[in-house]
From TrEMBL:
<feature type="domain" description="SAM-dependent MTase RsmB/NOP-type">
    <location>
        <begin position="184"/>
        <end position="459"/>
    </location>
</feature>
<comment type="similarity">
    <text>Belongs to the class I-like SAM-binding methyltransferase superfamily. RsmB/NOP family.</text>
</comment>
<feature type="compositionally biased region" description="Polar residues">
    <location>
        <begin position="1"/>
        <end position="15"/>
    </location>
</feature>
<feature type="active site" description="Nucleophile">
    <location>
        <position position="401"/>
    </location>
</feature>
<dbReference type="GO" id="GO:0070475">
    <property type="term" value="P:rRNA base methylation"/>
</dbReference>
<dbReference type="GO" id="GO:0003723">
    <property type="term" value="F:RNA binding"/>
</dbReference>
<dbReference type="InterPro" id="IPR001678">
    <property type="entry name" value="MeTrfase_RsmB-F_NOP2_dom"/>
</dbReference>
<protein>
    <submittedName>
        <fullName>Fmu (Sun) domain protein</fullName>
    </submittedName>
</protein>
<dbReference type="InterPro" id="IPR023267">
    <property type="entry name" value="RCMT"/>
</dbReference>
<keyword id="KW-0489">Methyltransferase</keyword>
<dbReference type="GO" id="GO:0009383">
    <property type="term" value="F:rRNA (cytosine-C5-)-methyltransferase activity"/>
</dbReference>
<feature type="binding site">
    <location>
        <position position="348"/>
    </location>
    <ligand>
        <name>S-adenosyl-L-methionine</name>
    </ligand>
</feature>
<feature type="binding site">
    <location>
        <position position="304"/>
    </location>
    <ligand>
        <name>S-adenosyl-L-methionine</name>
    </ligand>
</feature>
<dbReference type="Pfam" id="PF01189">
    <property type="entry name" value="Methyltr_RsmB-F"/>
</dbReference>
<keyword id="KW-0949">S-adenosyl-L-methionine</keyword>
<keyword id="KW-0694">RNA-binding</keyword>
<dbReference type="InterPro" id="IPR049560">
    <property type="entry name" value="MeTrfase_RsmB-F_NOP2_cat"/>
</dbReference>
Amino acid sequence: MVDALNTSQTRSTEPSADALSFDNLQADTPAQKRALSYANTIYQLFHQVMDKQQPADRVVGEYFRVNKKHGSKDRRVIRESLFALFRWWGWLRKFDSQSEIEQTWLIQLTINARLESHPWSEFISAWETFAGLVSINSAPEFSHISQRATWLNEQFSEHCFTTDELVPDWFWEVCPSENSEQRLALVESLSSRPPIWGRVQNIDLDDAIQSLQKLDIPAKGCEFFSDSINLGNKNINLNGLSLYKEGELEIQDLGSQVVGQLCQPRADDNWWDTCSGAGGKSLQIRSLMLQQSQEAQGSIIASDIRRKPLEELAKRAKRAGFKKITTSPWKSDELPVPHAHFDGVLVDAPCSCTGTWRRNPDMRWIDTIDTVLDKPSLQLDILTRSSKAVKAGATLVYATCSLSPLENEEVVKAFLAQHSDFSLEITTHPFTGAKDTMHTVVPYQADTDGMFVARMLKRS
């Protein structure tokens, strides 16, 4: 049974909104009582994210950590409803001015559940009844985002719902798209749940798939990379998987894997990952070396200004049995590694992360246009500093998980204008087959996050 957030829970999760009052509603059945309790909990979590601008995954994770009595169904209803609200908030916020706040919220929850085709019909029915929406037509099985917009426009003719509204207006200013079909496809992908992508290492892909399928995890391979694995859309307890605990499975989005693949590390290369975070790409680069030779002598130095992610990388490398990865944190503006030393330098620069909005739909409403506009000068500075570590005849790779040309192509062009000793290399987009010097991985191309990558060569 789910209880509304009580006083102690409120202190623990620091919600920024008061609990709703449903005193005027008569909940006659256990399902109706649970539905109202869910509504209250989701409301407070939603407003904690929006009002305090805290990441939704962190907010809901902390809530469940404190409130351990929730069963798996409770967690699913709360989590999936919460994240769906952010996916459809561009439409749902149109109802914000209607009636009293309690009824408005129940309307939003009902429509949210219908748009997502959530299976908890008894709770949806209760929300629908309390919201006074019993006269609307049942939602059909949606196969396309345009069908959702059409259904909403038919049910609520006083409003006008367009697909462009599912991202903030400023997004189109920094991520312009003149092609209407591609624009629609992008919104469609950003409004859908992405699969969990991973990589296998030190194990045959087919063996890993077989092992996971025995655990009812719908794992399957990928047509693009021989070590990529699709783990489906359901949440997975990774710490309960022997493959993960033994370092044979790493979680890494397929879009992110494009970066390591386009680095094209050779078995004995020395690489520097300048902004490694917890080291997903460092691990991938080492794995790609070992795929060429189990005796690969190549090495990776991973750097970041934050110590905790580097500590996490060290744990992951140990779990995988990778001995050629070391860390060297940034301590000042000076390089934490030797100059003109590396066969390859990867600059996976800090960015607006608009390419990850599928996984973090809350960020599109928390962030502002400044989240993009503030980044290019920092990115150019990091790229410029990092380029000093590339030796003659070696490789420099620039990447972001942004979809904005301001953070991508424009940064590369600005760098090349100042560094005539570097030139772009032609590479192949793994999903489209297009040959170009700079590639944007768009989420709809292969059901991934969005990424950008450009590979440069320093002249001898």
